[in-house]
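Researcher: I'd like a structural prediction for the single chain below. Treat it as a standalone chain; there are no partners to consider.
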Amino acid sequence: MNKDIYLTNSLGNKKDKFIPINANKIGMYVCGPTVYDDPHIGNARPLVVFDILYKVLKCRFGNDNVTYVRNITDIDDKIIKSSFEKKIPTKELTEKITNNFHDDCKYLNCEKPSHEPKATENISLMIDMINKLIQNGYAYLNNNHVYFEVKKFKDYGKLSNKKLDELIAGSRVEVSENKNNPQDFVLWKPSKDSEPYWESPWGKGRPGWHLECSVMSKKYLGDKFDIHGGGRDLIFPHHENEIAQSRCANENEVFANYWVHNGFITMSNEKMAKSQGNILKIRDLKKNINGQVLRLALISTHYKQPLDWNDRLINECQNTISKWYESYVEIKKPILIPDEYLDPLYDDLNTPGYIANLHKLYEKSQKGDLKDREVFTSACNFIGLLNESKSQWESFKKIKIQISEDEILEKIKERNLARENKKYQEADKIRDYLLDKGILIEDKDGKTSWKIK
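Model: Treating it as a single chain, here is the predicted structure.
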């Protein structure tokens, strides 16, 4: 039985049944990184969310019928600024950060997209689109800059569901005396002598950020396609501008049918921001946290909702993965997952609902036979979990231990003695000390055992 998929569409802000343009040729475009600095945990959320959506689409429509495009923005003002600060060429910087990004994707067990175009590889197509916008009367040239004239596009603001005046106030709109109107956005800008540039009919320069995604999505998915994704922070101005320039250049009424946006990550209920000093880079987590733990944490809350990042969340996910490995078996061939367990993922990518089903499957596997454990492991594999052997998982956990086995046993003796003497506060302090070192102790049948947390 073919299941219907439902997604919350930001264009209209309601949950819609997913009806593809062509069920044999599904297209999904997701905004990738601007490679000026190493990815942070906020960047990791869309990576994992849309990786799972990609899996769900392939499960429903077939592996060969889904095309997933995720771009690399490797020319941008932020990149130029960062290269100057680091005193290295932009190409050297972008190659390094792109490689780090790919390492992070592997760490999070994300599949490679079907295509991963770079902006710098598609400059000629960007020039072509700008020319088309000028010819169609939607863009103008002023002082070697080319701007899109927003007031000429009647549907501007529909995605963000705001009027033009509301969109400008307090938003990330560039202020420039070269514009006819404050809300107009740049399609091409001149480069200074020390900056990277490309030749164009308007002089040496580089494309605007918004234009890049319009061109790369068109190249691989056509004038219109099914799903466009990204973080909520991209709704305006980036995605609003993509819609405007794409529809006006392609002369159609549709750019993408479904706009899917994930919520922000907060740190102790504060939005992550450089100004707050709470940016947490993925690379800084790799030594102490297994990628599976991060992946589970990132999908523990529904993708639309804010996700608060804290130690308690990480510890809970660490303990869950450890428990689930008790039912892990090596899968030699794909195991069919019953529809009743997959249902939450078809309903607006409800990962918390699916995780609840995994807990049910785990309980069933603990009481059942090999077949039950195979189904459970396969269901975890489907969302990118239990993707390494149990021995690999245990080896990674041992890396975290900050205490020798001899010291662990000595501390357990001290604790048992404290308990015998009814010094319970002292015993609790020893337990907490071991817990901080990554060791969990358990008392059962008069004996104390330990295991890696």
